[in-house]
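Hello forum,

I keep getting stuck at the same step: I have a sequence, I want structure tokens, and every attempt I make locally crashes halfway through. Rather than fight my setup again tonight, could one of you with a working pipeline run this one for me? It's a single chain of 196 residues.
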Amino acid sequence: MDKTQLGRAGELALALYALVGTEGELQLYTPVADDDHTDVTIGRRGLVPAIALQVKTTSHLDGDGLVEAKAEYPAGEVREHPAFLYAVLLLESVSIATAWLVPSADFNRLAYRTTTGKREVLAFRARPGGGDRYASFLVPPLELGNRLLTVIESLREPVPRELLQGGEVLGVKTTSPPGRSPRHGGGWQANDRDGG
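Reply #2:
Ran it on my machine without issues. Output:
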């Protein structure tokens, strides 16, 4: 498989493990275009997505016996938010052999960094057996779904009001549709001026 196919296989494997592991409690959504570092958004069934993941997949260990994954951003624009995580997967055939779920703040703090020109590269390197800086983020593959549910439950903050009414969140400028305002639960309702 080429790099794009392997990445997609990892996203599909994560979706399968999360869906089956939570008996359908999680819903996973993928973007139409893969150009903003979000490979999948996830939420409880019947609710709006609550977290976003960038999924990094490899099918082999490097020469030092490590899993390596890289995230590349424009310099000074590395994404960090409590609801943004990295899932790093070692995929063997059609099964996840090893998985890490790393909150973006921890990934950004622990990753090796290089800046070349206008690009900043964060490199994740970890041992599948643990014993390194990423050991606390190892997740048994069959527990991925429940761990994601735990993350969702830990985010007690509602969707920021400025996201619903126009503003800037996660570096994305947002606006409400003309003549409409946000309605609780993520839908839009005409003439609902109180936002609730």
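The helical segments are 3-21, 104-110, 144-154, 161-165. If your local run keeps crashing, start a new thread with the error log.
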